[in-house]
């Protein structure tokens, strides 16, 4: 064993024993953090600019020196936080105690079956099950995740059932890199068929013959999905027919099925543009094009019966619109508006039924659900009563029904599932997420405020706090979270684990910054590419607003974000480190320029229109001006906890590792700087509903320790 790791582990073990013996006073050991070797590596852009990366060598995943360094960082973290181990365990138990362990989802009807998932007490993974014709019928197990996960350090799996309900594709990842293996289970006998397809990157989309399905696979180098194949049961998967191959390296393809079950849709796209093809699900043939790829135009296709497609698109519609087109000739010249573009309303989602259309929209950052009747075009809107909330259309596989399922949640209201009758307008609460213990949503208050950013834009921010703990006097600890990329909107939703913060007096905020789409399509455009810094400025301005308006103390504000939100954390740390007491940056995309220059790894070519093309000097220089890794300086930084996963295929582990190594060398303060690498997981962290809580307990303990919160 590496001597550094051995020494750190010895100290950690000794401290854990000391903590368990409840010594009256704890004193941090005099332990120096790991120091990564400096190995200068010159990187030259195509336009000639040169940079030197001292830690480029950390990208060698199989190099023992790299593994030793990551293990040393983990051991250092364990050592320096060993005195919190008991508290971490208490936090884990506290968060777990709120979870109803033998819980189940609301069943949905599909054909003659009611499908649902459930958990058993102590079980880490879901059990997918069904009952035929009645919920009182005998349960049939589609797949037991706890059996599937035995002996595995990681498991992520889901299922896809054939149209005749006799077969189920079991799609699972046991490493965490989002490479899935497909097996086929005969639901009549319970036996697994010999068919096995490895390294797919999608679900299995069944054809209507119930003996074949479609799936997409990644390019072995860049990992972008570049082929759609069709597998016929009983045949050698190595001979599966290639239905479509995307040759443009900036595009990634996928496959799905329309609501009517009549068509297979193959789509291909990047962050700014997409196109789609269709083929009949009853008699597969060659895919037919809907509309060709066009810069800055996205569209999705669905079919709800008859001779027309519904197409959701931003063509000449920054806030998206819905059009229809004949199946016989669906080219853009035949597109006819069904829901036109509106300047003040963002069209998010549409679901189709035999007699109705359910429309999910956003106005001023708040969700709306509207019901439209085909026959007479009459419509009505569902009402919601809180200042900050999230409402969204649920999973509605049935077509010939008057009932639409939707979800509702707020920062004080647990996720609730409703069935709404679109004809008579009756609403039934099917389930509210149970929160065990003494939880009472009346004890908590949510607010929605509009923060004026430095350029005058109004930024929505959702807040929640515990009423009897809160004082608007500038003394409260605070936690602010955001994402701000890819047009993903961050919902003001409920979290039972967040109660562990609120019950200790924290004010929790979600900043709906530019780069998402909370305020419409322009909100996204104004936070990407050459406007990316707006994302960071918005977050800083929201953070300062919390302090200046006495919601949060100026020396007690913490921030967190993951993936592209980890980029956000890295950027604001360089731009305004004095605003934050501490930052948690998870699976962080912090080495923007180097990653965008490397066309052999994921998160590159087909994302150039999100971040920039480094081969274009102006875009290169703009990315370089904010890239967190490139802008680390010799100055004071707040406390930092960075996390990553060794098998992450979306943001490679070496980005956070390099960032921490550089911070250690340059920062001028004595604040904590930790790197945690999950050596068994990928982008999503630990699998299982309880193992992931341990990682969250570590993050909370990191923050509580800084604030000297002991229990």
TrEMBL record:
Sequence ranges assigned to domain Peptidase S9 prolyl oligopeptidase catalytic in this UniProt record: 493-707
Keywords tagged on the record: Hydrolase, Protease, Serine protease
Keyword Transmembrane helix among record annotations: no
Coiled coil: none
Family annotation (Pfam families): Peptidase_S9 (PF00326), Peptidase_S9_N (PF02897)
Superkingdom, taxonomy of origin: Bacteria
Peptidase S9A N-terminal domain mapped to chain residues: 39-432
Entry's family note: Belongs to the peptidase S9A family.
Protein name stated in the entry: S9 family peptidase
Protein's organism: Belliella alkalica
Highest classification ranks of the organism: Bacteria, Pseudomonadati, Bacteroidota, Cytophagia, Cytophagales
């Amino acid at each position: 064993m590496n001597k550094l790791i051995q020494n750190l582990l010895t100290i950690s073990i000794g401290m854990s024993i000391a903590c368990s013996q409840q010594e009256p006073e704890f004193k941090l050991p005099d332990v120096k953090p790991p120091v990564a070797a400096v190995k200068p590596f010159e990187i030259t852009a195509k336009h000639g600019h040169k940079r030197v990366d001292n830690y480029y060598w950390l990208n060698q995943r199989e190099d023992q020196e790299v593994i030793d360094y990551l293990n040393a960082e983990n051991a250092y973290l364990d050592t320096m936080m060993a005195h919190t181990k008991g508290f971490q365990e208490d936090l884990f138990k506290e968060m777990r105690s709120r979870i109803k362990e033998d819980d189940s989802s609301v069943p949905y009807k599909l054909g003659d079956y009611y499908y649902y998932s459930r958990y058993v007490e102590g079980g880490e993974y879901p059990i997918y099950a069904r009952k035929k014709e009645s919920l009182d019928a005998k349960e049939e197990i589609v797949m037991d995740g706890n059996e599937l996960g035995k002996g595995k350090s990681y498991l992520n799996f889901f299922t896809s059932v054939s149209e005749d309900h006799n077969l189920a594709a079991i799609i699972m990842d046991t490493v965490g890199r989002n490479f899935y293996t497909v097996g086929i289970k005969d639901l009549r006998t319970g036996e697994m068929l010999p068919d096995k397809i490895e390294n797919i990157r999608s679900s299995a989309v069944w054809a209507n013959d119930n003996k074949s399905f479609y799936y997409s696979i990644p390019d072995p180098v860049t990992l972008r999905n570049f082929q759609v194949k069709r597998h016929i049961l009983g045949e050698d998967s190595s001979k599966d027919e290639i239905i479509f191959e995307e040759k443009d390296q900036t595009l990634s393809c996928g496959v799905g099925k329309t609501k009517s079950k009549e068509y297979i849709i193959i789509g291909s796209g990047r962050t700014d543009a997409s196109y789609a093809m269709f083929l009949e699900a009853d008699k597969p043939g060659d895919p037919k094009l809907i509309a060709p790829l066009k810069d800055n135009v996205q569209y999705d296709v669905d079919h709800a019966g008859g001779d027309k497609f519904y197409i959701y698109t931003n063509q000449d519609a920054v806030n998206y619109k819905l059009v229809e087109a004949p199946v016989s000739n669906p080219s853009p010249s035949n597109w006819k508006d069904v829901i036109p573009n509106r300047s003040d309303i963002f069209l998010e989602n549409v679901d189709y039924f035999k007699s109705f259309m359910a429309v999910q929209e956003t106005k001023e950052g708040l969700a709306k659900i509207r019901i439209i009747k085909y026959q007479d075009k009459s419509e009505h809107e569902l009402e919601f009563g809180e200042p900050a909330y999230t409402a969204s259309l649920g999973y509605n596989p049935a077509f010939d029904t008057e009932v639409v399922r939707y979800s509702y949640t707020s920062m004080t209201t647990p996720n609730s599932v409703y069935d709404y009758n679109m004809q008579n307008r009756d609403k039934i609460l099917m389930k509210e997420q149970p929160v065990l213990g003494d939880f009472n949503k009346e004890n908590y208050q949510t607010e929605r405020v509009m923060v004026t950013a430095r350029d005058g834009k109004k930024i929505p921010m959702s807040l929640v706090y515990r009423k009897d703990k809160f004082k608007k006097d500038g003394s409260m600890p605070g936690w602010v979270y955001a994402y701000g990329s890819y047009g993903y909107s961050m919902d003001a939703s409920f979290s039972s684990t967040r109660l562990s913060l609120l019950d200790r007096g924290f004010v929790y905020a979600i900043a709906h910054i530019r780069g998402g789409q909370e305020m419409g399509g322009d909100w996204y455009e104004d936070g990407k590419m050459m406007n990316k810094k707006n994302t960071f400025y918005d977050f800083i301005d929201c953070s300062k607003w919390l302090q200046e308006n006495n919601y949060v103390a100026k020396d007690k504000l913490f921030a967190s974000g993951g993936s592209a939100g980890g980029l956000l954390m890295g950027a604001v740390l360089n731009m305004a480190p004095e605003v934050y007491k501490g930052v948690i940056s998870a699976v962080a995309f912090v080495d923007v320029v180097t990653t965008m220059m490397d066309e052999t790894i994921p998160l590159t070519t087909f994302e150039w229109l999100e971040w920039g093309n480094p081969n274009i000097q102006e875009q290169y220089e703009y990315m370089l001006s904010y890239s967190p890794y490139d802008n680390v300086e010799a100055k004071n930084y707040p406390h930092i906890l960075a996390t990553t996963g060794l098998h992450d295929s979306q943001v490679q582990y070496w980005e956070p590792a390099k960032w921490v190594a550089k911070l250690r060398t340059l920062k001028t303060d004595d604040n904590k700087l930790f790197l945690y690498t999950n050596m068994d997981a990928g982008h999503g962290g630990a699998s299982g509903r309880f193992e992931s809580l341990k990682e969250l307990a570590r993050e909370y303990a990191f923050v509580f320790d800084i604030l000297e919160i002991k229990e």
